[in-house]
Design goal:
By secondary structure, the protein is α/β, with parallel strands linked by helices. The protein has ten helices and nine strands.
Length: 257
Amino acid sequence: MTGGETVLLTACIAPGSEVPYLALRDVGERLADYMESLVRWLRTPAVSAVVFCDNSGYSFESESFAALARALGKELEVLCFSGNDGAERYGKGYGEGRLCDYAFSKSHLLRQATSFYKVTGRLYVTNFDRIALRHSRDESVFALTSSRVSYAVKRFRGKPEPRGVDTRLFKISADLYRRRLFGCYEEVDDCAGRVLEHVVHDRLVSEAVAPFLECPRYAGRSGTTGKPFSGRWVDHVLRDLWFRLGLHAVRNPEGRE
């Protein structure tokens, strides 16, 4: 299949008991979430290729998913390696950043792609087809974790917060990943407040990346809290407005931070 998007799904099926700020640790629960997500991504019309990469060394049985991919005319590549050591000290963002570097270096599907979407593997984006269509001509697309209004309010109240990029979903060109994000996990230290989202923001703020034009609708559970994401439309009304106004853009229209 040609013409669709390549998606990298990041997975840590068996994270261990020492990784900080992680509520969802049960291997069986995490595996079930990843399997459900993988099926949904393979069935997504706008997706032509999926790279599923686990960094916990789990023995993932992929043949049934490979058969589904073939039946749907999609490409699937499954990568598994033991690369989550360090996450117990520096946090899950460290492990995820290291995973992305591994996939970028080893995946033949990513090597073939000019751009790809990175998605946190247990999550599904229910409006991905619309997002992919709206950003088909954009090589790199990112969103701030909070709106510029939220950051401004916190600064006004005397509690400024470092800006961060939402790493659950983004689109990035292979060139930009190689130049700006490769190796960025080495700067992550969750316990010191230097999370992956802050590092990625600081690496990208000088780049001309496009903003998402609508708010991604997430389905699944947060690994940090263990709680499901809300699917209620009322929760997205204000966020959609902020996205349309460009208030989640990494850079404002004048190119300033």
